[in-house]
């Protein structure tokens, strides 16, 4: 995805865990962070406390959605995804993308990967890898400041 492109529809999922949301429920209200992860990704697990911190700190200001992107056949076990999600306190909705339809719509190749959309559903920041969440939080704060200045 390129900056300013609209958020793809959240379709093609194999299953949802922790509730289900649609693009329509996210766009028009507040910014949305969509993060891709995988149960076989060490960096994803290492970053999860930071994502959970963002979820708790900004709970009324942003939406957070997780997308489980399998990297191999070992990542396709739904019960294992649920177990790891619980173990790492992933409480936000998780779209299980076994068929990689959303992964393809995002043209995503990495985990962890973070896509930050503004309240109108336009991509404003993309980040991949284990470089930490500090830059993501900076971009999020800048986006929230823009919203505050327009209200």
Reconstruct the topology from this structure.
Blueprint: E1 15-17, H1 23-26, E2 32-37, H2 42-57, E3 63-68, H3 78-87, E4 94-96, H4 101-106, E5 113-117, E6 123-128, H5 134-150
Parallel strand pairs: 2-3, 3-4
Antiparallel strand pairs: 1-4, 2-5, 5-6
List keywords for this structure.
151 residues; alpha/beta; 6-stranded mixed β-sheet; 5 helices; globular
Please tally the β strands and state the result: 6
The largest pleated sheet is described as: 6 strands, mixed
Query: Proportion of β residues?
Result: 15-25%
Distance between the termini: 28 Å
Order of helices and strands: EHEHEHEHEEH
Low-confidence stretches: none
Q: How many helical elements? A: 5
Question: How would you classify the helix and strand content by structural class?
Answer: alpha/beta
Task: Write a short abstract of this structure.
The chain has 151 residues and is of the alpha/beta class. Helices cover 35% and strands 19% of the residues.
Describe this structure in words.
Helix content is 35%, strand content 19%. The chain is built from 5 helices and 6 strands. The chain has a 6-stranded mixed sheet with strand order 1-4-3-2-5-6, with helices on one face. It is globular, with a radius of gyration of 14 Å.
